[in-house]
């Protein structure tokens, strides 16, 4: 029987899609097989990036024939534990977890292990448990290095006489990434702080002092307001190290309300609202992490575990979770500012030009 050309093309494109999305898929068929459900638990819908992580994983798992149960914990630690327990009770085949509190999942993951459910830590390391199999993330130390290097270059620090003033912000203390970002940044800034070319007027320099619980922009804004009204009242502020766009926007609001000349200010995640601020010359930089790629890595890891393969990793040293070193695949972050945001984000298909204009 001769099949019509249109149908042949449709069948061929399904096969191409299925193979390109899943090199490790054991079989290729036109009707996707039912491979069971994957539980995906992510921290919050309040930040746009986690929405796109969720969408990306749903689409890619579905292409491979899996159903998905995607739930958001809205930054509630206990809520996330009971969502995960519910997924275990419903016998999901694997769990992909972006944790709210990376140290709080020990017991629920013990119950996943008893049920034989593999666990992939998504973006954030899950700590203090043997029951996490793989970790899909970015080079988190490098994120911090990129942010700090941006500040160093923008201020012309190697040559300039200074001194310049800077304030430091860090992420959530229950997120392992926050330490990595801060350590990466400090590895670049420390020599300039020691030589006093850079001065932290508030004196608040330790991770604990500058951390921002749950990455909450309102908390960062309040801290910036306190600094502006107190130690910075009569000081110029040249730079702010901010590890995440949601914090950067809160900090900028405080600065604008205080009618300050805007300092160099960093960020992370290339969130749409921040990219617009970069285009407008208000936020200086963001570190772009392509969540489509991260979703792909996690999906490949889960699929390969469920089909008898071994997930590909490229780091088996850095991510000690307190019980074991979790094998990881690290993607590369990209520095974005006013000079390259169109090329990287629009030409790269992350945003449309219309989204940035709107
Ligand atoms: C981190 C993540 C960052 C940012 C932040 C706040 O764990 O690596 O990219 O999204 O959380 O959500």
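Sequence proposed for the structure above (358 residues):
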């Amino acid at each position: 029987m001769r099949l019509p050309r249109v149908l042949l093309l449709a069948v061929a494109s399904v096969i191409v899609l299925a193979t390109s999305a899943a090199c490790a898929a054991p079989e290729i068929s036109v009707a996707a097989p039912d491979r069971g459900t994957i539980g995906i638990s992510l921290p919050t819908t309040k930040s746009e990036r986690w929405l796109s992580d969720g969408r990306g994983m749903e689409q890619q798992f579905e292409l491979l024939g899996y159903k998905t149960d995607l739930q958001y914990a809205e930054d509630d630690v206990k809520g996330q534990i009971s969502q995960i327990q519910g997924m275990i009770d419903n016998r999901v085949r694997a769990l992909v977890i972006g944790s709210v509190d990376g140290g709080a999942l020990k017991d629920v993951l013990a119950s996943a292990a008893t049920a034989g459910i593999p666990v992939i830590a998504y973006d954030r390391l899950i700590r203090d448990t043997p029951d996490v199999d793989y970790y899909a993330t970015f080079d988190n130390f490098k994120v911090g290095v990129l942010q700090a290097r941006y500040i160093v270059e923008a201020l012309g620090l190697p040559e300039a006489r200074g001194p310049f003033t800077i304030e430091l912000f860090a992420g959530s203390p229950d997120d392992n990434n926050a330490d990595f970002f801060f350590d990466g940044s400090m590895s670049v800034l420390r020599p300039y702080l020691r030589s006093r070319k850079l001065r932290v007027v508030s004196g608040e320099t330790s991770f604990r002092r500058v951390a921002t619980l749950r990455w909450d922009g309102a908390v960062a804004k309040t801290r910036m307001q306190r600094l502006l009204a107190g130690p910075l009242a009569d000081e110029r502020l040249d730079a702010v190290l901010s590890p995440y766009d949601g914090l950067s926007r809160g900090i900028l609001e405080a600065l604008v309300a205080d009618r300050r000349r805007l300092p160099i200010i960093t960020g992370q995640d290339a969130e749409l609202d921040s990219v617009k601020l970069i285009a407008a010359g208000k936020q200086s930089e963001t570190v772009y992490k392509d969540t489509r790629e991260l979703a792909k890595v996690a999906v490949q890891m889960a699929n390969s575990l469920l089909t008898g393969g071994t997930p590909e990793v490229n780091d088996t040293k850095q991510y000690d979770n307190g019980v074991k070193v979790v094998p990881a695949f690290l993607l590369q972050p990209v520095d974005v500012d006013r000079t390259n945001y169109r090329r990287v984000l629009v030409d790269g298909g992350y945003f449309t030009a219309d989204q940035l204009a709107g």
